[in-house]
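lol ok so funny story. i was supposed to be doing the assay writeup but got distracted and ended up predicting the structure for this chain instead. priorities right. anyway since i did it might as well share w the group, maybe its usefull for someone
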Amino acid sequence: MEYVYAALLLHKLGKPVNEENLTSVVKATGAAPDTVKIKALASALSEVNIDEALKNASAMAMAPVAAAAPAAGAAKAEEKPKEEEKKEEEALQGLASLFG
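and the output, tada:
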């Protein structure tokens, strides 16, 4: 989990989320960096729009409230292109593999 936190910290500070920066952040905490996990995370996040992912994550947290909304919201969700959904799924699968 510390690697994801490191990536979020770098993103928040406007720094590139890459192997070198992730390693530096993890080392600064006093933990021993796992280069395999860092490489996997950097690779998985290289094609992810972190701002968009965070926005979607907060929208998912509020999903039970949104479920009571009119069906117009459901129609908008169906308009998302299939290719974009596939890319998001692949990115999430890459991230999920980091945590076993």
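The mean pLDDT is 79. Residues 82-96 form the longest helix (15 residues).
back to the writeup now i swear
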